[in-house]
Write a structure and sequence with these properties.
alpha/beta, Ribosomal Protein L25, Chain P
Length: 235
């Protein structure tokens, strides 16, 4: 059984190496009041977990990595969540955190015709995803894209492509998200929903319309509902 140790992030981690950790990881060690030579785990965000020991030298924190203790292959069902940021940034940051904890591989904030938020700080969102990876004991770091025009989403390659919207028309059940094999992308619009043109363009590009239930959901609720259906309910 793997020990429950404090986790540090080092994307370039390899066995039998010594790495200088960044300022955020240094602050993390101070908050946890970790000592010299204390054993810790180092995750590279690419499926690998290492055992290491902390070394404090002046104002620098480094970790001496001794061995690889766990390696996990990438999922055969990667999920991309394309979602319009909410006007209240706290709600969108919550989406980033929870989607990362649920194992979503990539999150693409999208700018739609009826979007309420047109600017984002991608670096901050990436830090939230990093904290979620550590908290959930995941070995994979969720990729956070810059804010992207929704029209760029329709050309992304995936085995299954879905758009959740509130307009009338035939839709598949949310259960289809759990039955999809291979990669899939799920698109969630802003509070004002996708425009008619955006929906039509998505359908023409091979996206299937999906219903997330009978009730009208907030953007953040819809996003997490879709994530749960796609990952946790898969047999």
């Amino acid at each position: 059984m793997i020990k429950d140790l404090a986790r540090f992030y080092a994307p370039e981690a390899t066995a039998n190496s010594t790495l200088i950790l960044g300022e955020d990881e240094h602050r993390h060690a101070k908050v946890l009041r970790l000592a010299e030579d204390q054993e810790v785990h180092v995750v590279d965000g690419k499926g690998n977990l290492f055992l290491g020991q902390l070394q404090f030298k002046k104002k620098q924190l480094s970790v001496q990595i001794s061995e690889l203790i766990q390696s996990e292959e990438a999922t055969s069902r990667p999920v991309i969540l394309a979602v319009a940021p909410t006007k209240n940034i706290n709600r969108f940051e919550w989406v980033i955190e929870k989607a990362s904890e649920l194992g979503i591989q990539r999150i693409i904030p999208i700018k739609c015709a009826q979007s309420e938020r047109l600017h984002l700080k991608t670096e901050r969102l990436s830090k939230i995803a990093l904290s979620a990876m550590k908290q959930s004991k995941s070995l994979w770091l969720t990729e956070i894209d810059d804010l992207t025009q929704v029209n760029e989403i329709w050309d992304i390659e995936a085995n299954s492509k879905w758009i959740a919207h509130c307009a009338d028309g035939p839709k598949s059940s949310i259960q289809m998200l759990s039955k999809s094999d291979g990669s899939q992308i799920i698109c969630i619009g802003p509070e004002g929903d996708f425009s008619t043109m955006e929906i039509d363009t998505a359908i023409d590009a091979g996206f299937g319309a999906v219903s997330l239930g009978k009730l009208r959901l907030r953007t953040e609720t819809a996003a997490i509902s879709a994530c749960i259906a796609a990952n946790l309910f898969h047999p």
